[in-house]
Task: structure prediction
Amino acid sequence: MREATKWQTTPSSQVMSQVVGCLAYHGVSKALQSVLLSHAPHIVETTAPNVLSALLEETFSFDYIDFSPLASQNVMLVGSPGVGKTVMVAKLIAKALGEGKTPIVATLDCFKAGAVYQLEAYGHALGVHIHVCHDFQEFRHFLSLSENPENALIVDTPGIDPRNDADVRLLAQYVYLWDQPPVLCLPAGLDPLTAGERSVAFAKFGADRLVITQVDLVDRLGGVLVAAYMGRYALCALNQSPYIAKPFLTLRPWMLSKSLLMKAGIKFSNEEVYESFQSF
Result:
């Protein structure tokens, strides 16, 4: 058996059964399952983590949030109310500090009770001042701070309902001033239909990267996978803790594969985990 496995060049039926079972467990739609599995005939991996990783890599694009001197990224987070944007802002501040940048942080969420206080508390803990922008003029002044390449601008926007015209107009004006694609925060627990509709709605604001939030609260991630596919988003980060001391994870195919399999209760050996790390 060991020799057969060694020379095997395509996934076994047992491995494919595990992968299909994993996708079904997470509630991945039949349409997306078909897209993922259509790549299977071209996969030369032989373990479930590597096969699923290869399928994800063929189907989705992956990006990252980088504050290093060469990247000089700025980040505006958008999303619906209660999706974990403010916690992500705090973790982005910590990441920027760790990569040698000076985080310049603004909140546009001035209307929800406690929203400013929460972010200011995070900022105080991290030693960073929070700019509270009450209107477009104050936001324009904040944007002028981007002229210093040593700064990393991070913006928390108000959570909006993309079905509400007033909310849409407000966010659209801020995104227009920002003049860069925003990053969508989407919670892991949404059903595929709702997640897909929401992702398409925020794609209209130019959002092109997706942060998966609140992963610690749910067992199934099918909704966000459907959302990423429908909205043509690059998967860039996964936040699985509400504590700012625990950083978010940069999404990579092998890491997402392991997370999906583990949440589905599909066990794999330490050797398979090692192979996954070696392959990517």
